[in-house]
């Protein structure tokens, strides 16, 4: 999954960039791209604190409250792997943008070709660097590493994790001292997982439907939706909306 955030205080420019990225998303359904747009740097930083990281940030440089460079510095303090692409009507900040290891610097208004080229480079880099795996210490001292994309859901019972894979295999851990919330934090921060009960976290990539009481997976398995986690239904709806579904 590729999560993209666009931030620009100029509504017209924001919508233009969003349209170009949406077009890219539609042309690359295999990438499972989600796109969110923000009209202020404050809203973007608040969203990062609330929901976790994005993979790619497309940032206007000249913004009030915190400009794009300051936002980039803030992002870099939390995430050294994120990809930053800057948009601006002035080339004056080009040198500063490299100080936060920006991958791209495009003059506004960008065209579809330039956005596509920048996103292609970003996706290639993400593919090369993507090491997101659920690492599970198994009985006997062996270690299992399940790619996030191959996880249907994760179950927690008797202080053990059980990773249910898309191929039907179940990888079970040894006794865990940490709570399920602590163990699941990296999954939730990834953006494609949602907690639906005290003992289940589901990969929304593999959900086929949801009701007020359960989540149905693409393998036709169903999992109960707890009242305590009723907000998971809206999280899934938001997940679909971010993908234009």
From TrEMBL:
Q: Which residue ranges does the record assign to the Response regulatory domain? A: 3-123
Q: Which residues carry this modification: 4-aspartylphosphate?
A: 60
Keyword set, alphabetical order: DNA-binding, Phosphoprotein
Q: Does the keyword DNA-binding apply?
A: yes
The record ties this protein, via Pfam families, to: LytTR, Response_reg
Its Gene Ontology molecular function terms?
Answer: DNA binding
Q: What does this protein do?
A: May play the central regulatory role in sporulation. It may be an element of the effector pathway responsible for the activation of sporulation genes in response to nutritional stress. Spo0A may act in concert with spo0H (a sigma factor) to control the expression of some genes that are critical to the sporulation process.
Protein's name according to its UniProt entry: Stage 0 sporulation protein A homolog
The species this protein belongs to is Bariatricus massiliensis
